[in-house]
Amino acid sequence: MKTLIIIPAYNEEASLGNTVAKLMTAVPEVDFLVVNDGSIDGTVAVCRDNGYPFLDLPCNLGLAGAFQAGIKYAYRHGYDCAIQFDADGQHLPQYIRDLEKAIETCDIAIGSRFVNHPKGTSLRMFGSNIIQSAIKLTTGETIHDPTSGMRAFNARMIKLLALGLNMGPEPDTVSYLIRSANAKVVEVPVTMAEREAGESYFNWKSSAKYMLRMTLSILFIQFFRKRLEGDAA
Fold this sequence. Notes:
The protein has 233 residues and is an alpha/beta fold.
């Protein structure tokens, strides 16, 4: 299987080098691509100094836009599997093989913290439960960790994500793909580490907005999305 690991990076100068080093040690034969999402620190310098393959976006597009850029690269270069992987050290490279193996028999594999372990009681976990319930209500599928950023997509999904409009790797898109493309989703049990350094895409305010936006999109907007795309075709 020809796999590309896509690493969106926004101001990850302090953590990117260590993250990539661990990745290259664990899966040295797997390709990776850093997508510098308009960073204002030395993220690009880290890529250049170490010879990392990277895309340098001229402005900050956000996590979804950065991943879409990587997905388009994966599609144009004929990859069979694309894996979203955080630059901050939270995602552990020892699970890459498990995600690849899962993709052999499904369309989307999600690295899940909560297949075998209960969620906590934080505000973020409350939001995760709301999104999980919305996906269950609209698709009939149970995804225990819908907000996990460690996701793998097969070639069919890569094409849909690369060519579709507003197809970021988010819970509402996963829900949409289940409904409109009969995507088969599995969860692979993983553990995650704490952020090593750098700047997160999300703070508490943006996280709350994200949870609300995802829930509304899954419950309402997704049901118009397919009809609009069908009309356009």
